[in-house]
Structure formats: structure tokens, C-alpha cells
Amino acid sequence: MNKPNILIVEDEESILEMIALNLHHNNFQPLRAINAEIAESFLKKNEVDLILLDWMLPGMDGIDFLKRIRTNSNTNEIPVMMLTAKNEESNKIEGFDVGADDYLAKPFSQKELIARIKAILRRKKPDFFPKQIKHGNLQVHPDSHEVFHQSKFIKLGPTEFKLLYLLCMNKNRVLSREIIVDKIWNNESEIDARTIDVHVKRLRSTLKSHGIENSIETIRGAGYKLSDEINFE
After folding, report:
1. Is the pLDDT of residue 190 over 90?
2. OmpR/PhoB-type domain spans which residues (predicted)?
3. Which of 61, 70, 87, 218 suits 142 as a labelling partner, its CA being 20 to 30 A distant?
């Protein structure tokens, strides 16, 4: 499944790049625009699943651009989240009245931003959030945190489940230890390579005890990836 395309319309480069990096780390595809004119060009050429729109833009401001989005039959269904330092109730009401789906005041937490994006997409585009991920005879259920192999339940600890889910969501990608720390432990500084190796070893051992051999590859000097040659006995 393709990653959701998120168009960021933000004229402050540092904020733009911070949001884009955070989106990339959370399996979204960021598209960047520093003003409404560039954003409008993107919308004509790309399929966009959600727009993060700054209010205070050079030239056409965010509110006027949102009005254009909502009056264009090609874009009026795209969900839009306003990102702005304007935090008065009247500003929020104006944004919602024009057609914003959500409103997040600056400065904001990157975790909250991702949570709000996911909440909007679950409502608007639920296909981006599969209820079950399959890899061979292995089924991973992200909502219930359950794993099955040939319909038999596999009990995993919370960290091992997160690790397996992360690997399944990145089947063809080698995940470095830094990425794993960022995704599972939110980049906590006290988590070292040894801790990750221990959890990988536990996950491999549990899967092996259920007849799943060669589950996770170690790529020397790079990290880990879900094996394309898992042997389901």
C-alpha cells in the first residue's frame, strides 16, 4: 500500500523541514510548499491525501487558500488541518467555518500532530490503516495487538509486538537501530544497541518456537529487516 501523501504548506523552512522529517519517520510521504501558489500547483499534479496549512502565508494567506480548496471540485474533499499561531477562539471558528477539518496551534507537539493526522485519515481514508497485516502465514493485528501463525495465537510482549509490526510495515526496508529507537522508544537516549539486539533475539526465539524460522535478517552495519525467505514449517 502506498504511503499517504501529506502536503505541508508552510513558509518557515525550519518548521517545514521538521514536520516533513517527522512525517517521513511515521510512514507518510511529505510534499513541501512554501506558499499557496506552489501548493496549488502540487494539487494539480499530485494526489494529496491531507493538507497541513499554515494560516500566515506570504501572498495568499491560508484562509483564502482554504476557500479555494473547498470551492474546487477536484480538491474539496481533501482534509485540511490548519497550523497557526492564531490561537483565539474567533480564529478557530473562522477556520472551521471555511472548511478546516482540524486546527492545531503553534507551537505544537510533533506527537500530537501525528496523532491528529492519523485520526483524520482514519475517518476520511480508513484504507490506509489495515486491520490486519499479512506476511506469509503470519497475521499481525495492530488494533488488538495480536499475532497469529496458521490461526494459532502467538503471545508477544508489548515491545516485541511493536518491533514485529514495525518490520512488517517496512517489509522491503532495512531498519537501522536509530530508526527502531525512534519508532519504538521515541528516541530515548538511554536505549542502546544492546537493548535492541535483546528484543530482536526474543522476537526471533518466540517466532521460532511457533515454527517460524529465519524470521529477521541482520544486515551487517545497517540494521534489521523482515526476511523475504521466512520458512513457515
Report:
1. no
2. 130-228
3. 218
Give Cα separations from 224 to 47, 97, 121, 138, 204 (angstroms): 32, 47, 29, 18, 12
Residues 6+ apart with CB under 8 A from 213: 230, 231, 233
CA separation, residue 160 to residues 51, 90, 194, 205 (Å): 33, 46, 15, 11
Find the domain containing 48 and state its range: 5-128
Question: pTM for this structure?
Answer: 0.63
At residue 192, does pLDDT exceed 70? yes
Q: Are residues 26 and 79 in the same domain?
A: yes
What is the mean pLDDT of the segment spanning 91-115?
Answer: 92
pLDDT at 233 over 80: no
